[in-house]
């Protein structure tokens, strides 16, 4: 009997741990060096309040966190977006993260950490075995957040949606918006029709790869690091036909080269560092960012130390400075990687710290406006599909 009682207690303890494990991981994985209140100069505070700030990358949909409520952990939610004056946020779907993933060589067949996270969060059973269902479920979370936002958050799917949102925000700064991306086309499960499936679910940006090589393309962190496959070329073509944006973050050099050789529209890199500032496999070379910019694309500078180097906000701005000096202010943007298993200098409420440091480093108000969001607004307006009319 005592053994039965001990076994029951052990099972209950395991079940309780599984139910709370994802929150513990969220608190540990998504840290900020500092949290509000932030010290910001009056000049930066005034300018930042006038900006249309856009962030090109967050992984917040991966976590079981109500985005409509403010949290004391993690990096981003709607209240902190407003505190940081983030008008528009890319919410990027993560469907697979191999155990032991690293920036040099990550096998695609390693056990998947997302599965354990999904079980802990008690997400639908169908998401445990299907990467496509994981992507569709996370897209659905974005739509639920829109429904529960009291009309203050909108999902951008078309260029008209973007225009309508910017007009509404001009009269109400509480209005915020997001658009849905997807990190790695392995979630297509080898089926071209699933590009349309994700488009219909609201996805408007996809990267060929994440941390590992897949059946679409080679990853910068994969084993082979090859280029686009024949299936991958079909995927890029279909994305362009639908009006989806290609995100080259995490792509191998050969994949970047292949995409640029066949793309008829500009691409972007949602979150990256620069090899000239920190030489590692995670980052892009000057030749790569020049090629992307020459095709009309945008480079989103990320915030975490492994990519930009030690030093917090000044390190981020050093990378922004190098990007501007290399490709011009018209092709540089912000791509935080909030909630992406990284430590950042601040959370979403502290975005004005970037504005402050840009001012301190002699950036003009015009360039700050471009980098903070106007470049992305321009690109989205040009690339997003038009609204369908009956």
Indicate the topology.
Elements (H helix, E strand, L loop, with lengths): L1 H28 L12 H9 L2 E6 L19 H6 L2 E8 L19 H8 L5 H4 L1 H17 L5 E3 L3 H13 L4 E8 L9 H8 L2 E5 L22 H13 L2 E2 L6 H10 L5 E5 L13 H9 L3 E4 L3 H4 L4 H15 L4 E3 L17 H9 L4 H19 L7
Parallel strand pairs: 1-2, 2-4, 3-4, 4-5, 5-6, 7-8, 8-9
Helix pairs in contact: 2-14, 7-15, 13-14
Plain-language structure description:
With 390 residues, this protein is α/β, with parallel strands linked by helices. It is built from 15 helices and 9 strands. Strand 5, helix 9 and strand 6 form a beta-alpha-beta unit. The radius of gyration is 20 Å and the shape is globular.
Which regions have little confidence, pLDDT < 50, spanning 5+ residues?
A: 7-18
Individual helix count: 15
| Secondary structure: number of strands | 9
Which H/E pattern describes the elements? HHEHEHHHEHEHEHEHEHEHHEHH
Estimated helix fraction: 40-55%
Distance between the termini: 70 Å
Q: Which structural class fits the helix and strand makeup?
A: alpha/beta
